Write a sequence for this structure.
């Protein structure tokens, strides 16, 4: 087991009372949790319970209906304007947050018309305004971390899913994120390719990366996470260490979920 004691480390992300309503559906209903520096926190729960929405609200890919996201001590809250639309207070801080939060998606989301190297240098050149030479140096460093530097001139469709996802990790790493959001990074992969991506996540965790991970790889999450959050119908039912979650599920729903994804004695 790789649990690192982090209880006193700085808070990177503090999510407070996050709510998200789509039409008449309350997808997130008062979700609060904290991610500290160097922690791996896994967000688990059945399909449709709001995991992706929670991640997407965290970096404002989706505007929360209400609540507050505090990132490295800077609070960004959402209130309602006169027309009842959500309004971000301190919107300037969203840019800062996005600059330091990297996201890896289930379906890789690489640019199909760009090479591996082009995918990784893109934000370095366009967002960080680095020279092409500097960007390529950093990109090659990031690609070597995921073992993909020799594929620099290939296009995404010439790569396996596992290789594409490793490039997606390199693209995030190149930006030196303070927090990585990973939304089911192995769910779209053939079973034999899952391991190579989990290996990258494990390596990043061991190197001290701060990661909020949505996953169904329960054994992996149990082994690697400092804490696991169980989301059920938009509410956090449990926020515990993996030991505690598996030993003492907080509700029938948690128990049922764990036994459905992890057979007894696994
Ligand atoms: N853009 C959207 N518009 C309307 N409903 C949405 C939207 N995104 C997600 N939902 C709904 O919100 C619920 C939670 O979705 P999601 O966060 O993707 O769940 P999970 O990632 O846990 O499977 C689902 O019922 C889904 O249909
Ligand atoms: Mg999802």
């Amino acid at each position: 087991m790789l649990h690192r004691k982090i209880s006193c480390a700085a808070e990177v992300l503090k999510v407070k009372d996050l709510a998200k309503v789509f039409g008449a559906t309350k997808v997130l209903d008062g979700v609060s949790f904290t991610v500290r520096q160097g922690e791996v926190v896994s967000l688990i729960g059945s399909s449709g319970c709001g995991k992706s929405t929670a991640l997407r609200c965290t970096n404002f890919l989706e505007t929360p209906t209400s609540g507050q996201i505090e990132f490295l001590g800077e609070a960004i809250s959402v209130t309602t304007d006169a027309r009842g639309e959500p309004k971000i207070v301190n919107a300037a801080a969203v840019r800062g947050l996005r600059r330091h939060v990297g996201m890896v998606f289930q379906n890789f989301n690489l640019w199909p018309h760009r090479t591996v190297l082009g995918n990784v240098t893109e934000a370095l050149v366009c967002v960080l305004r680095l020279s092409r030479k500097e960007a390529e140096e950093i990109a090659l460093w990031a690609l070597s971390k995921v073992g993909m530097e020799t594929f620099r001139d290939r296009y995404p469709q010439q790569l396996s899913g596992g290789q594409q996802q490793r490039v997606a990790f390199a693209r995030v790493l190149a930006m030196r994120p303070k927090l990585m959001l990973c939304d089911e990074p192995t769910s779209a992969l053939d079973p034999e390719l899952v391991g190579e991506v989990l290996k990258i996540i494990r390596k990043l965790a061991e190197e001290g990366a701060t990661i909020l991970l949505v996953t169904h790889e329960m054994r992996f999450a149990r082994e690697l996470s400092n804490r696991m959050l169980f989301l059920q119908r938009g509410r956090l039912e449990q926020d515990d260490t993996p030991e505690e979650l598996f030993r003492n599920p907080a509700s029938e729903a948690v128990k049922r979920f764990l036994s459905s994804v992890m057979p007894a004695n696994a």
